[in-house]
Write a structure and sequence with these properties.
single chain; alpha+beta; Serine Threonine Protein Phosphatase 5, Tetratricopeptide repeat; Immunoglobulin-like; four-stranded antiparallel sheet; three-stranded mixed sheet; 44% helix
Length: 335
């Protein structure tokens, strides 16, 4: 059977049950504040309508469930279904005026319960109303309930459970102030917390405190300026190398000029290449002297500014010496 056929049959059955319940209610309309107990037929019809509305929450099914529950005196449940039907109608583009009007008609006569828990933590406390767990945001908020008796149970980690039964009157708010729960190791724990089995080996031994190990001998740097002096030696070596390189190219430039056949600063055309080579060697020598001298000077400064090795603190230890025939003192120390 197609889904459209099943929906048609379900809606048809719901309409039939609604008509049957309305016919029974027309003969003897119940009081809206007292649940109707006139037989299993009407209750079965409402149960079927509510089940259909929960499985397939369409606008018509929700409205039919609300009408049936209103007829049996469960006005809080009816009010809830009317509001759901109105929201469903708005989602489908309908005004939902009938559902909103029906909900507004019941709202003044609703019975409400407000559970107030002082300074509660939603992670460690649970509030149950008629076997249903309340969301944390519902705690401290007036909750519509059907006429009759209702049981409220409060569970907290490490506390004795607390419960109370109330029968709120119509058109009122019954406020329940939960007292401070009594601590107990035998208290019911919140769902999700695992109770560890008791041990028959007596109390557990205390965990050993962590003591950091002493530093290894020889790890401490006895010469804090060692690294800085190493850098200074490297700079000095580079400076000396630059000076030697400059000396080499300076000598090469002089030798090149000595080999040239120039007279009174006048050189023949055949010696132009040699003259250029001498000039380049002289420039290299100048750069090498400059960089080498700067590096050497920097190395000297770094070496001088390096922290010196700490000197051992002077210590003197005097110990008595006792013998059979003599006595005295021995002195030892570090200076």
């Amino acid at each position: 059977m197609s889904s459209q056929g099943r929906n048609a049959i379900g809606i048809g059955g719901g309409v039939y049950l609604l008509l049957a319940s309305q016919a029974a209610l027309a003969a003897d309309p119940p009081s809206p504040a007292v649940p109707d107990d006139r037989g299993p037929a009407l209750q079965a019809a409402c149960t079927e309508l509510v089940r259909d509305a929960e499985l397939d929450p369409t606008q018509n099914r929700l409205f039919a469930a609300g009408r049936c529950e209103e007829g049996t005196g469960r006005i809080a449940s009816a009010w809830t279904h009317y509001r759901k039907a109105a929201r469903r109608a708005e989602e489908s583009g309908d005004s939902g005026a009938d559902a909103r009007a029906a909900a507004a008609k019941l709202e003044p006569s609703l019975s409400r319960v407000e559970v107030r828990v002082p300074a509660f933590d939603p992670r460690t406390i649970e509030v149950w109303l008629d076997g249903k767990l309340l969301r944390p945001e519902a705690i401290g908020f007036p909750i519509p309930v059907d006429p009759g008796s209702h049981e409220i149970t409060v569970l907290a980690s490490g506390r004795v459970p607390w419960s109370v039964k109330v029968s709120p009157p119509p058109a009122s708010v019954t406020r329940i102030d939960v007292p401070v729960l009594v601590p107990s190791e035998q208290a019911t724990r919140v769902v999700g917390q695992v109770e560890m089995p008791p041990s028959d080996r007596g109390p557990a031994a205390p965990l050993p405190s962590f003591v950091p190990p002493p530093p290894a001998p020889g790890v401490r740097d006895e010469d804090p300026g060692k690294s800085q002096r190493t850098v200074a030696w490297a700079l000095g070596g580079a400076g000396v190398g630059g000076i030697l390189l400059g000396t080499y190219f300076s000598l090469k430039s002089s030798a090149t000029r000595d080999d040239m056949k120039c007279k009174d600063a006048h050189c023949p055309a055949s010696q132009i290449d040699a003259l250029d080579r001498s000039r380049r060697q002289s420039e290299i020598a100048s750069w090498a002297f400059g960089l080498g001298g700067a590096s050497l000077a920097t190395g000297v400064v770094v070496y001088v500014l390096a922290p010196s090795r700490p000197h051992a603190a002077s210590a003197l230890q005097v110990s008595p010496v006792l013998g059979t025939n003599n006595a005295g003192l021995t002195a030892s120390g570090r200076f």
